[in-house]
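pls design
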């Protein structure tokens, strides 16, 4: 549904990895090699992930993780995708703008940021967002905080449902 919505909006290169195809290696390879190598500075890349997430570490030093289809809890460090890995892959991509949309439990720890507009008045947030168009920006929208469970409705993420309604 998200892929169809993006295509309808005019995105011309939508890659979908679902279920067993969404392995750690395939996610990193697709983002870094297939999409990243084709990207130009004026491109917008949207990375949408709906699945399982995790946050680990001590308070103040927590790291978010994507848990791909081949995740093994007994091999967490080698079978999950840490946000530092996602950041490293993303830094190699020439696209000026990247949007990460995460619909998973504990997704608020996905990418730590230096800036947040969550408590900024609407007018200030709008000015901030307009400024992002002028410079390189990686923006993260998540289903909740780093200790929140993502809600589901009808077998699908409620966050994704609301996002799709907004995109339409």
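designed seq:
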């Amino acid at each position: 549904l998200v892929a169809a919505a993006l295509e309808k909006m005019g995105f011309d290169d939508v890659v979908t990895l679902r279920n067993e195809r969404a392995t750690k290696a395939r996610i990193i390879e697709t983002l870094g090699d297939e999409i990243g190598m084709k990207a130009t500075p004026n491109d917008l890349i949207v990375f949408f992930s709906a699945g399982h997430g995790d946050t680990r570490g001590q308070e103040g030093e927590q790291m978010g993780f994507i848990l791909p289809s081949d995740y093994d809890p007994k091999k967490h460090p080698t079978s999950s995708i840490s946000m530092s890995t996602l950041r490293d892959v993303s830094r190699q991509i020439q696209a000026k703008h990247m949007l990460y949309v995460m619909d998973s439990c504990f997704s608020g720890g996905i990418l730590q940021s230096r800036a947040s507009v969550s408590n900024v008045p609407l007018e200030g947030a709008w000015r901030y967002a307009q400024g992002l168009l002028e410079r390189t920006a990686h923006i993260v929208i998540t289903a909740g905080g780093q200790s929140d469970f993502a809600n589901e409705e009808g077998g699908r993420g409620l966050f994704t449902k609301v996002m799709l309604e907004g995109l339409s």
